[in-house]
Amino acid sequence: MRIALLPGDGIGPEVAAAAERVLQELPLDLELEKHPFGGAAIDETGDPLPAATLAAVESADAVLMGAVGDPRFDGAEVRPEQGLLRLRSELGVYANLRPAHGEGVDLLVVRELVGGLYFGARGVRDDGTVFDTMEYRPDEVERIARRGFELARSRRGHVMSVDKANVLDTSRLWRRVVERVAGDYPDIELRHMLVDNCGMQLVLAPGQFDVILTENTFGDILSDVAAGLTGGLGLAASASLGDGRPGIFEPVHGSAPDIAGRGIANPAAMLRSAALMLAHGVDRPAEAARLEAAVDAAVASTPTPDLGGTATTTEFADAVVRELASR
């Protein structure tokens, strides 16, 4: 299985190195190939997503990515983040998975990734009015809904579809299509919840949620709320999946240039992203569960400074390796 490893910028190479080391401890035939991406690729080629990197990604079984972003390019015409947006577009990844688990919390946000407000028409009118347009086609809603229902089958069988159907026409379309798709999944319980109530319920009673299915903007916000319940973005992993193309697996945190090179970056989110890759990218769910459990144990036993501990990136990876050996 060929994995395209894109270390990226800032702490990206450090957490990518930890993931590479830990994955080598698993009994899997994985071939990891590193390729420049983001600011590092701009320095090397002038392009955040060089043609050679894209070709390698398209021929891989999965993409494991560090983090992109470099303040040197803030406001520049060519920026690292442009490479990430192009990569998502080229691979057609429309389903963003953001798991959150901790004490009393075990949920999965399934977020539509390539439609809605972030991709609608936008502009400035002559009178100075600025507008952004939220748009969804029925087929865009249907494919993400089916992904959510399929994932619920591998969990506890409950989908909470989140919208703003009391106000928005796009949400009313969303609800109609989700209801129709639900007819093909009689084994899955479907409920609807308005997004403002969902935000409150995540704080008050997160244990009620299994799969949260929602559109792009709402999912962006709610997934960060869920991450806040379980330790923050520094522990949060994500998967971005399409149909029949390599998925992208990456930590949610940024490139953290302020601590880059100091050896104290927490690689937990990167390692959890690697576990998502094993589960959803290369169909190795048993090894994914082993890795996830080992990371959880290392978070408890060997915390890095962001979690109140003193462990270095390498020491945390060492702890994960020890945990894997004991399982």
What does this molecule look like?
This protein has 327 residues and is an alpha/beta fold. It folds into two domains: 1-93 and 242-327, Isopropylmalate Dehydrogenase; 100-234, Isopropylmalate Dehydrogenase (3-Layer(aba) Sandwich). The protein is 42% helix and 20% strand. The protein has eleven helices and twelve strands. It has helices at residues 12-23, 39-45, 51-58, 80-91, 138-153, 169-182, 195-204, 216-229, 268-281, 285-301, 313-325, and strands at residues 2-8, 31-34, 62-67, 95-102, 105-112, 122-124, 130-132, 158-163, 189-194, 211-214, 237-241, 247-251. A ten-stranded mixed sheet has the order 2-1-3-12-11-4-5-10-8-9, with helices on both faces. Strand 8, helix 6 (169-182) and strand 9 form a beta-alpha-beta unit. Helix 1 packs across helix 9 (268-281), helix 5 packs across helix 6 and helix 10 (285-301) crosses helix 11. The longest helix is centred in the C-terminal third of the chain and has 17 residues, at 285-301.
What is the C-alpha radius of gyration, as a whole number of Å?
20 Å
Using the 3D structure, state the CATH architecture of the largest domain: 3-Layer(aba) Sandwich
Q: According to CATH, what is the topology of the largest domain?
A: Isopropylmalate Dehydrogenase
Biggest sheet details = 10 strands, mixed
Could you say which structural class the secondary elements and strand pairing correspond to?
alpha/beta
What is the CATH class of the largest domain? Alpha Beta
Strand content: 15-25%
Number of beta-strand segments: 12
Give the N-to-C terminal Cα separation: 23 Å
Helix percentage range: 40-55%
- Bulk shape: globular
Number of domains: 2
Count up the helices: 11
- Biggest β-sheet: strands ordered side by side in the sheet: 2-1-3-12-11-4-5-10-8-9
Would you list the SSEs in sequence order as H and E?
Answer: EHEHHEHEEEEHEHEHEHEEHHH
Average pLDDT taken over every residue: 97
Looking at this structure, what is the CATH superfamily of the largest domain?
A: Isopropylmalate Dehydrogenase
Low-confidence segments:
none
